[in-house]
Amino acid sequence: MSDFDLDLRTVEEHIDEELDIEGSIILGMLDGTTPPEEWLEAISKGNVLVLNVEGDVNELASGFARDIKESGGNLVHFRGFLLVTPPGVDVSTDRL
């Protein structure tokens, strides 16, 4: 066997640094009653939104969609829900 030195403590420390993820998954209703600024604030804090769409998604998301896209976030409309993610959190649609 060859000499292979693996310091698992060092690896674990780096993994913990890389996984410093903050935020939550927020479930909500996209029905026009919540001001767009509240959705933008939630995304700016690293949260992911899963919003049940009650109406026309384009009209209801118009107050925040452009800002999310321009900041590098994602919006995906899927089966009556709008998933909104902050920059750095991708939504994979490969299995659809």
Low-confidence stretches: none
For the terminal residues, how far apart are their CA atoms? 46 Å
Which fold name fills CATH's third level, the topology of the domain at 21-85?
Answer: Translation Initiation Factor IF3
- Categorize the overall geometry: elongated
Helix content: 25-40%
Overall description:
This protein has 96 residues and is an alpha+beta fold. The protein has a domain at 21-85: Translation Initiation Factor IF3 (2-Layer Sandwich), CATH 3.30.110. The chain is 32% helix and 23% strand. The protein contains 4 helices and 4 strands; from the N terminus they run αβαβααββ. It has helices spanning 8-18, 36-44, 57-61, 65-70, and strands spanning 25-30, 48-53, 74-78, 81-85. It has a 4-stranded mixed beta sheet. α2 (36-44) links the parallel β1 (25-30) and β2 (48-53). The longest helix is centred in the N-terminal third of the chain and has 11 residues, at 8-18. It is elongated. The model has no long low-confidence stretch (mean pLDDT 87). This is Cell division inhibitor SepF. InterPro entries: DUF5779.
